[in-house]
Amino acid sequence: MSRISVFSAPFLLGFDSFEERIDRLARSADGYPPYNIERSPGADGAETFLISIAVAGFSQAELEIVSEDNQLSVRGRQKDEPGREFLHRGIAARQFQRSFLLADGMIVKDATLGHGMLVITLERPQAPKTARRIEIRSL
Q1: pTM over the 0.90 mark
Q2: Which of 17, 24, 52, 75 lies at a CB distance of 3.0 to 4.6 Å from 36, suitable for a disulfide?
Protein backbone atom coordinates (compact mmCIF):
# COMPACT_ATOMS: atom_id res chain seq x y z
CA MET A 1 0.00 0.00 0.00
CA SER A 2 1.44 3.37 -0.96
CA ARG A 3 1.64 6.20 1.51
CA ILE A 4 0.33 9.68 0.72
CA SER A 5 2.81 12.38 1.59
CA VAL A 6 2.00 15.82 2.94
CA PHE A 7 4.81 17.14 0.74
CA SER A 8 3.11 15.98 -2.49
CA ALA A 9 0.69 18.92 -2.42
CA PRO A 10 1.02 20.96 -5.64
CA PHE A 11 1.73 24.25 -3.81
CA LEU A 12 4.73 22.85 -1.89
CA LEU A 13 7.49 23.20 -4.47
CA GLY A 14 11.06 22.20 -3.72
CA PHE A 15 10.34 20.30 -0.48
CA ASP A 16 11.13 16.85 -1.91
CA SER A 17 14.10 16.15 0.35
CA PHE A 18 12.19 16.91 3.57
CA GLU A 19 10.19 13.69 3.39
CA GLU A 20 13.38 11.65 3.10
CA ARG A 21 14.92 13.48 6.07
CA ILE A 22 11.82 13.00 8.22
CA ASP A 23 11.75 9.27 7.41
CA ARG A 24 15.44 9.01 8.33
CA LEU A 25 14.82 10.76 11.66
CA ALA A 26 11.79 8.61 12.46
CA ARG A 27 13.78 5.40 11.95
CA SER A 28 16.49 6.52 14.39
CA ALA A 29 14.06 7.59 17.13
CA ASP A 30 14.40 5.70 20.39
CA GLY A 31 14.47 7.05 23.91
CA TYR A 32 18.23 6.87 24.51
CA PRO A 33 19.86 9.12 25.44
CA PRO A 34 17.34 11.53 26.92
CA TYR A 35 17.59 15.15 25.84
CA ASN A 36 16.09 18.63 26.31
CA ILE A 37 15.72 21.43 23.79
CA GLU A 38 15.45 25.02 25.03
CA ARG A 39 14.74 28.15 23.02
CA SER A 40 15.61 31.68 24.06
CA PRO A 41 15.77 35.02 22.31
CA GLY A 42 19.32 35.92 21.41
CA ALA A 43 21.09 39.12 20.53
CA ASP A 44 20.16 41.11 17.42
CA GLY A 45 16.81 39.35 17.01
CA ALA A 46 18.43 35.91 16.59
CA GLU A 47 17.02 32.88 18.37
CA THR A 48 19.29 30.61 20.40
CA PHE A 49 18.58 26.91 20.91
CA LEU A 50 20.27 24.67 23.47
CA ILE A 51 20.19 20.90 23.00
CA SER A 52 21.18 19.17 26.26
CA ILE A 53 21.86 15.43 25.98
CA ALA A 54 22.46 13.20 29.02
CA VAL A 55 25.69 11.35 28.17
CA ALA A 56 26.89 10.22 31.59
CA GLY A 57 29.81 7.82 31.29
CA PHE A 58 30.92 9.07 27.86
CA SER A 59 34.22 10.88 27.46
CA GLN A 60 34.83 13.67 24.97
CA ALA A 61 36.74 11.23 22.73
CA GLU A 62 33.75 8.85 22.62
CA LEU A 63 31.35 11.53 21.32
CA GLU A 64 31.05 12.90 17.80
CA ILE A 65 28.88 15.77 16.51
CA VAL A 66 28.37 16.21 12.76
CA SER A 67 26.30 18.88 11.03
CA GLU A 68 25.57 17.97 7.42
CA ASP A 69 22.78 18.73 4.98
CA ASN A 70 20.52 20.47 7.56
CA GLN A 71 20.86 17.51 9.92
CA LEU A 72 22.72 17.49 13.23
CA SER A 73 23.89 14.01 14.29
CA VAL A 74 25.31 13.15 17.70
CA ARG A 75 27.00 9.77 18.08
CA GLY A 76 28.37 8.07 21.15
CA ARG A 77 30.57 4.97 21.05
CA GLN A 78 31.72 3.31 24.25
CA LYS A 79 33.90 0.23 24.42
CA ASP A 80 33.94 -2.41 27.11
CA GLU A 81 37.19 -2.34 28.99
CA PRO A 82 38.65 -5.84 29.16
CA GLY A 83 39.87 -6.95 32.55
CA ARG A 84 37.12 -5.23 34.52
CA GLU A 85 34.92 -7.54 36.54
CA PHE A 86 31.49 -6.20 37.47
CA LEU A 87 29.46 -7.57 40.36
CA HIS A 88 26.50 -5.58 39.04
CA ARG A 89 26.29 -3.88 35.63
CA GLY A 90 23.58 -1.21 35.72
CA ILE A 91 25.35 1.26 33.41
CA ALA A 92 25.69 -0.41 30.05
CA ALA A 93 28.41 0.49 27.58
CA ARG A 94 26.21 1.16 24.60
CA GLN A 95 26.28 3.14 21.42
CA PHE A 96 23.77 5.74 20.29
CA GLN A 97 22.98 8.07 17.47
CA ARG A 98 20.59 10.99 17.93
CA SER A 99 19.65 13.16 14.95
CA PHE A 100 17.98 16.56 14.75
CA LEU A 101 16.59 18.14 11.58
CA LEU A 102 17.69 21.79 11.33
CA ALA A 103 15.88 24.57 9.50
CA ASP A 104 17.70 26.47 6.77
CA GLY A 105 20.02 29.09 8.20
CA MET A 106 20.62 27.35 11.55
CA ILE A 107 24.21 27.65 12.75
CA VAL A 108 25.89 25.27 15.21
CA LYS A 109 27.80 27.68 17.47
CA ASP A 110 29.28 25.56 20.24
CA ALA A 111 29.33 22.24 22.07
CA THR A 112 30.38 21.68 25.69
CA LEU A 113 30.63 18.57 27.84
CA GLY A 114 30.40 18.79 31.62
CA HIS A 115 28.83 16.88 34.50
CA GLY A 116 27.50 14.19 32.16
CA MET A 117 25.67 16.67 29.93
CA LEU A 118 26.55 17.49 26.33
CA VAL A 119 25.16 20.94 25.48
CA ILE A 120 25.04 22.02 21.84
CA THR A 121 24.29 25.68 21.12
CA LEU A 122 22.50 26.55 17.89
CA GLU A 123 21.57 29.94 16.55
CA ARG A 124 19.04 31.02 13.97
CA PRO A 125 19.91 34.53 12.79
CA GLN A 126 17.00 36.79 12.00
CA ALA A 127 16.41 36.55 8.28
CA PRO A 128 15.71 39.81 6.50
CA LYS A 129 12.24 40.02 5.02
CA THR A 130 12.56 40.40 1.27
CA ALA A 131 9.98 40.95 -1.41
CA ARG A 132 10.54 41.67 -5.05
CA ARG A 133 8.28 42.42 -7.93
CA ILE A 134 8.43 39.99 -10.87
CA GLU A 135 7.99 41.60 -14.25
CA ILE A 136 5.71 39.83 -16.71
CA ARG A 137 7.10 39.56 -20.22
CA SER A 138 5.08 39.24 -23.40
CA LEU A 139 5.84 36.46 -25.86
Answers
A1: no
A2: 52
